[in-house]
Amino acid sequence: MIKIRPYRKRQDTKLLDLLLSEGHEWAEYTAPDKKDLYLLNCEKSFTYLLYEDEEVIGYIRALEDYSYYMYVCDLLVRKDKRGQGYGKLLMDHIQKEFPKLTVLVMSDVDEYYTKLGYQKIGSIFEVK
User: Is 51 domain-assigned?
Assistant: First the structure.
């Protein structure tokens, strides 16, 4: 059975296992000197885990700017579960949880969000 549950600290191991299964693409979040900070970010953000029975197969993490927008920072579905609509399910969950906010995505995989029917409006720049 598929369920979406809010992230809680006691689920650290399940979330880290999912991130580790992705290899180098998510290694920044699981590095020994960074994983505690990332898990703290998950606690302070709006983070939801996608479960299939008792196994975490995906998650979404978003930040709110308190009345205007909800920014999706991370969206991940386990490789062998992709293509089954789970990413869209997580995106829909954020929209249902925050119906008065405009949901925006900070993405490095634009084609995925285009496929879901979302419109690209602008871009993000890194300030150094």
Answer: yes
Q: What is the CATH number of the domain that holds 69?
A: 3.40.630.30
Q: 69 is in which domain, residue-wise?
A: 2-115
Q: What is the pTM of this model?
A: 0.92
Report the candidate in 61, 81, 58 with the shortest Cα–Cα distance to residue 72: 61
Strand partners, 50: 4, 58
Identify whether 121 is part of a domain.
Answer: no
Query: Nearest-CA neighbor of 62 among 91, 33, 26?
Result: 91
For residue 76, being part of any structural domain is answered with yes
Residue 47 bridge partners (DSSP): 61
pLDDT for 85 equals 97
